[in-house]
Amino acid sequence: MSTIDERVSALRALMNEKGYDAYIVTGTDPHMSEYVAPRWRTRAFISGFTGSAGTVLVTKDEAILWVDSRYFIQGAAEIQGTCFRLIKLDIDNNPDTNTYIEQTLPAGSTIGVDRCSISISKFNELKERFAKRNLILADSDDLLEPIWEGRPAIPESALRSVPVHYAGLTAADKLSKVRAALKEKGADYTFIASIDDVAWLTNLRGNDIKCNPVFMSFCLVTMDKAYLFTSPSRFSEEVRKICEEDFIILPYEEAYSLSRYVSGKAYYDADRVSMAFSAVLDNPDSIKGRDITTDLKAKKNEIELRGMRRSHLMDGVAYINFLSRLNTEPDGSLDEIAVSDLLEKEREKLEGYLGPSFNPISGFAEHGAMCHYSATPESSKKIDHDGLLVLDTGSQFYYGMTDITRTLCFGKPTAEQKKDYTLVLKGHLALARQIFYKGTKGVQLDILAKQYMWQAGMTYYHGTGHGVGFNLNVHEGPMNVSSRLVDVPLEKGMVISDEPGIYKEGRHGIRIENLIAVDDYVKTEFGEFMAFEVLTMVPYEKKLIDLTYLDDSEISQINAYHQWIREELSSLVDEDAKAYLESATAPLVR
Amino acid sequence: MSTIDERVSALRALMNEKGYDAYIVTGTDPHMSEYVAPRWRTRAFISGFTGSAGTVLVTKDEAILWVDSRYFIQGAAEIQGTCFRLIKLDIDNNPDTNTYIEQTLPAGSTIGVDRCSISISKFNELKERFAKRNLILADSDDLLEPIWEGRPAIPESALRSVPVHYAGLTAADKLSKVRAALKEKGADYTFIASIDDVAWLTNLRGNDIKCNPVFMSFCLVTMDKAYLFTSPSRFSEEVRKICEEDFIILPYEEAYSLSRYVSGKAYYDADRVSMAFSAVLDNPDSIKGRDITTDLKAKKNEIELRGMRRSHLMDGVAYINFLSRLNTEPDGSLDEIAVSDLLEKEREKLEGYLGPSFNPISGFAEHGAMCHYSATPESSKKIDHDGLLVLDTGSQFYYGMTDITRTLCFGKPTAEQKKDYTLVLKGHLALARQIFYKGTKGVQLDILAKQYMWQAGMTYYHGTGHGVGFNLNVHEGPMNVSSRLVDVPLEKGMVISDEPGIYKEGRHGIRIENLIAVDDYVKTEFGEFMAFEVLTMVPYEKKLIDLTYLDDSEISQINAYHQWIREELSSLVDEDAKAYLESATAPLVR
Fold first, then answer.
1. Number of Cβ pairs closer than 8 Å across A and B?
2. pTM score, two decimals?
3. B93 at interface of A, judged by CB pairs closer than 8 A
4. Burial of A223 per CB tally in 10 Å (0-12, 13-18, 19+)
5. How large is the ipTM?
6. pLDDT bucket at A1, cuts 50 / 70 / 90
């Protein structure tokens, strides 16, 4: 019996004790985080599948893993030799987990799910849905806990305080804003489970999740007090002193005794708070809505924007030095990982650099066509022939964050590659230059990035733009730019990515990504208009631009961008990178 | 005491009898129609206000009319000398009707509303909202009925049958499609209150509402029967025979005895069915959703599309003859009404022409800047100086419908007028030529029409595109193209308008409108793509095009469109209009 099968057996024994006919493992943490710390990699523990998305269902006689197309191959490989079977999502009319439960479990069955691993809104929705088929959804204890020997502890990395000259607002300022919003909503307190929201509100940063400077915590804000639930042992004396000016620090687990600290009407985000808090929060008097901090955090203040600009200037210096050095490497000597390592080496020299903001994507040739490809020492492809490399990386700084994709051309490009690159670039430029009416939402802008490739029968399936945090998570809501009907207008200070792409399976991938910030532009007799400020400072790959697809104004837009980069960076890059910067930013001419 | 005040007094007496503290007059008909027959112009009857939108509230001591900005002036003028006062919407933080009720009526008050004048969804939403303030919303009898002497009768214009060679599908075909959808939804019957849906389903047309060939009716479709509730006296022997092949004809009022005819699970559109049917339909077993017929009707079949094309060809002939004649009228001899009459005269010569599809808009100079301007004999402006004329008109044919706006230039245009026209035209062309991924919604395409004027700090506040019926209503859902987040993909066969504009108050208005039909375009490795087919066949106003704002591909797009018009129409227009057609469609050259 494999280890996995033993674990499933142990789980079934516990299910039997509790009277559950099935048990769902969602794989998320008690904060509904996108990235989870090892302690909450429950899906991997029970099934062996290590991917970032998927659902596990264990019944009395079945163990099933659902994955989407990103993980069809990896999922199948990782569960091989275990009692698990794979169901592929969005293909062959396969049922998803919930539909499968409805179709196969007899009426009267009880399905358990760890109450810390599912949001209040999802649980309620599912409970109601199952009830129609006479199935009972139960909010369960974590049944993996008793069987998980050597389970990683709740992380408690040391905390640092973000000074106001980086954050722009003190924690006290931020608490006032939250309380003003609470007052307007007619609520008495708010409970925040989203860990990047807590980090923003407290002006604290940790290191609990790789690349994301967050820390496991909850926050409760009442009209006169603020409580931070996180391990007290992670504070230095200095940071504790700063924090205690505004917050009462209590142990992380104490959050689960929330009822002791609250009275009156709650405001909370039912999509982010887990079922473990349902008894206290989910009552008819409460007001549900997006975390107040999520909206505040998205609109960067002037100081944060200054830090974001500085981050991009620094990142631009490292990138130019890297590209210049890349040019001098002997042909065929590099592989995918060596390329991203070379860039990382340059970034490590930067003042205030903290590390990558996410796992770098470096995909050469056909690997570039795999959107979620991440090179491993085994897969890392040698760059020993002509081809394109998609390089999607980012930096965390004390004073901001970057996220940039450039597609680099090794050797000679084909006409098809140049056409594809130029169509992606046209869309990327169109979004960045668009002036838009105040109140415009991302879904309205999305087509700007797609319009040219659509004319050529091509598209991409990921979003065009996501929000980006200030020395926080690289994916940050509530706004985005995509085909999804997200009812959030783009507002002054929001920072989003602009990253269209084209991916041709087995051939090549192309993505071009800058970060852009929303700013006021002009007020006319028709109303107020907004515009984007481009933050990223790295030239496009001129070898891949086919001028016949560009009109004069697009060429001017590129030349102006390159000129700005040259002027800003020429005195900052290494001496031996100056010639490269000159040539990479020299004007395009027909 | 004015007549209006007498009516308000009489209403108050009835309110008192019923125990109502307030009474709302919505001004809609029992079918939630956009345009209502004189019988249901209740808002005008009680307040004297004749505009197309507004709400009336009568309390024990107040009589209030709410109107939006279109009607600030007209509303104030029409209620002058009565007991009514005006509240302007969307200005000065004025409360709307419901907020006003919440703010001013004491707890425990009862507010009546004619149950035939409000949809089930609106009533339920409002009832719940009022309940929170201890206010009671009551579904009332129509209290205007007893006091309305000489109230117009329910219209019962004669019906005609649309033959299958125009409709493409027989009523039996359509009933099968409705039943297939009902089966899929797990419902046993559907009740349809939307009168254009009934007209589509029955392949019948009437003349109950000006410009809309609909007839007052309800329809009930069960799995084996179909009932049409409409005045039996409106059928000729021939039409009755055709109709009775598929429908049991019952009197209009008999619909209110719906419970006699139904059993099992209902499917119905709670936004379109009035509260009068709530007792039968609104129960937990029922399924609410958009009328099945609304989705079917929106996707025109091949025969309908052929008829739509023919309609536009015919309309193009009339328009060219009209424009050619307009050119020969002595300077200063025309006014706004004379222009639209001249066009109407040409349309009346067309085979199969039934009349206008809506009240023509003909607005010269500053009148063109008023989006909803409709010339009256008093307001009709003489065209005796240089200026632009916005001419928005449409035709009903036995075999289809048109809706077209052209902006005509009298005399010499200014540089500003040419710039504005060309920016509108660029947007209009960009939407028409866009190829788009299957599943794309209107809100995603909206910016294509706005992108260029936004760059210049200009915009418009109306939608970019609305659905258009087949010899039915000129505004038809469920899809549209606008900034609203409407979750309806554009599908093959849908016909929509493409009508951006710029309106400068007191100066000039510009709008350019074609109808375009959605079609499949190409299937690639990336998926399926759709494209638009342009239906409208009238040249743009070349005098107003400033070539410096157009790129070469836009000029080619215009030239190809004009060439197509010339080739299609040259043998069909009047002899004396041929030279005009030639010159109006001659290629643009830089």
1. 81
2. 0.93
3. no
4. exposed
5. 0.92
6. low
